[in-house]
Design brief:
homotetramer, DNA-binding, Tetracycline Repressor, domain 2, mainly alpha
Chain lengths: 209, 209, 209, 209
DNA sequence: AATGAATGAGCGTTCATTCAT
DNA sequence: GATGAATGAACGCTCATTCAT
């Protein structure tokens, strides 16, 4: 899918980029704080450091702001995810390291991820598809790591499911924080998830016998 | 936490129950379709089969409708979860059966669970707490099943995390449907999750060695 | 002007009277507290001790309640004013006594008089006329007292103006209470007003000379 | 008491002033005609010559309009009252002249004064206090005139009461117009009030004897 | 005669968007 | 390119009034 474009009436592209970054920075805080629907365009403009009129020079609708925000979050997540893949060391250890880094990333970006989860459905259909694709891309990255790290007798489906599980477990650290972060630190959470992933729950029984 | 009450100006309590059920039924469809914020109170009234004035005889604010909807969903989920617990057979098989039933339930109530996920944050603070508690209750139910089904050398934390994993894996079948339901049926999804849960990913390697 | 009628669908006239008295009693308190417009018919019904449906058996519109209240206040005021006229003693002393009694009456009915002042304009035209006539009647009563108490060389106009002055001075004790009742008690207020009425402000100068 | 502020979201202060004047002009007519409660914000906007959206750029609530109207009336009254004080001629004649001017002013502003009398109670508490203070200020101005115009053997209380009487007599020319303006012209009303004020009603008796 | 559930016109207010300057 | 005053459709909610029971 080609990059979805948000048109602007301003010609100078570097200016567009600069203004939109201001905008995203201002908006993301507001969305985290009060959600997309309860944030007004005036507030976004103010938090971005320019007037409501200027805001509308760089976007067409309020939904564009949401899209820009979501896109920016995904881009940042994806960029960091790319660093955590280590293609030269296809061992279980490198998978574990990738999981650790990914969970750390999800911890760092808890608020952003939460916003995305709760607000994507406010995006217009095409933007939702675009965002969905981004997510698929990221899961695919995890799939790649898994495929390289585990013995080859895994089915495509199994790898996909493991990737999805890891992906969601990272996110749930953020969006179920009120439940999980009572019982775990990021470290104990990570350790235990890794252990469960590798060994399953049957292991002990077998070891016992 | 005591049951949160939504006051009504109508005295006949059975009527209140009846009308609220109409309301919930109408509202849930709308919320699924277009989200809470884009649904108007007039639409809710119409979908419920009465006038806007009548709607407001049974609630105080639009948020009350959301709360009623969320509460109703949780109640239905919880009621069905209670049936899937089998205290007489504390074996791994009974855990597996519970997971199957729970995933089936999440499949049946995909839309409702999705709505809840995306709209709880629109609830007022106290209602959010109430709903969060309900969720904790349900996770606790899963913890109970797990504790009874597995050998006793599990730590409290481990059990809690497994419960949370299962809980979220059930939900993700619904809210990641666009990704998962491309590759899996409910049955293959369940089978694979159960296998991963029980055996982990290391198993094969060990078996190989 | 004939007595304005408020129709009721109830036949039993003594019941109508009884219910309306309940209604007036309840409504007047509410009107004093929060004004006519901010009082709802439901509140009136509740304060009257019956249901909203019953309320509407005894009146046609909310304005009818206001009229009933105003009429009742005027009737009570008029009834008490009739007792303060002493036709047998046409002296200045009897005028002074009448003023004292009237000011006392206005003190007793401060709240009611205030309500009337602020809400008559919410009455329909014909009811306003009716109430205005009541007021004219009461001024006429004062005029009568004055005419009988003062030497005969007073013009009709002078008597009318004095009557109006006394009338308004009584009312202003209530509706300017936040200003007057800081500086005066009812007694000092009355004494001073009587003195000013009788002597004017020139007196002293003349006495000095 | 500091000047109560009504905030506006418009930055250009001269524009705020201009728009608010349009608003006050439009609203005062409507309030005179049908009262504050029966006037809708849309009517106010229309009468002011702008849209409902624009109206709300210059006020926060409908009550703000009422406050602006009341404040404007008081300001105009006060401004004119300041011109009628003649500090260089502390004689009875200057008091009489002040009364004449004040009654003339009350005649000119009958409708406005009537509105204020009937609607202040719809103002929020703090605005009521503010308006009450304005009234005290104006009474104080009359007190000043009286103190300077009469011999010095007047008590503070006596002066205050005379000031209040004059103040209310001016207002009653407007709010009792349906009664008074049948019998008097402004001139005959003024002459007679002045005569009563100066001489009292006893005078004649004494003169007779 | 009494009830109270139902109605819907109409209110005050908000806010995304536009466009003249 | 930037501004912010202006717009009005649309919202959540109220409440006087009706009428079946």
């Amino acid at each position: 899918m080609a990059k979805k474009q948000v048109p602007s009436s301003i010609k100078d592209e570097t200016l567009v980029l600069k203004r939109r970054n201001q905008m995203i920075k201002g908006a993301v805080t507001l969305f985290i704080e009060k959600g997309f629907h309860k944030t007004t365009t005036r507030e976004i403009a103010k938090a971005s450091g320019f007037s409501i009129g200027t805001l509308y020079e760089y976007i067409r609708t309020k939904e564009d702001v949401l899209f820009l925000v979501c896109d920016s979050i995904y881009q940042r997540v994806k960029a960091r995810m790319e660093t955590l893949i280590d293609p030269h060391e296809p061992t279980v250890e490198s998978l574990v390291r990738a999981i650790r880094s990914y969970f750390q990333l999800m911890d760092d970006m808890q608020d952003e991820v939460l916003v995305m989860y709760q607000e994507v459905k406010s995006l217009p259909r095409d933007a939702q598809d675009y965002v969905l694709q981004k997510e698929r891309d990221m899961v695919a990255m995890l799939e790649e790591v898994i495929k390289n790290s585990l013995p080859e007798n895994r089915s495509q489906d199994e790898i996909r499911l493991i990737a999805n599980n890891i992906f969601v477990q990272g996110q749930m650290w953020g969006f179920r924080r009120w439940i999980l972060q009572r019982s775990f630190t990021l470290e104990t959470y990570t350790d235990l998830q890794v252990k469960l992933l590798l060994e399953g729950v049957h292991q002990f029984e077998k070891e016992k016998s």
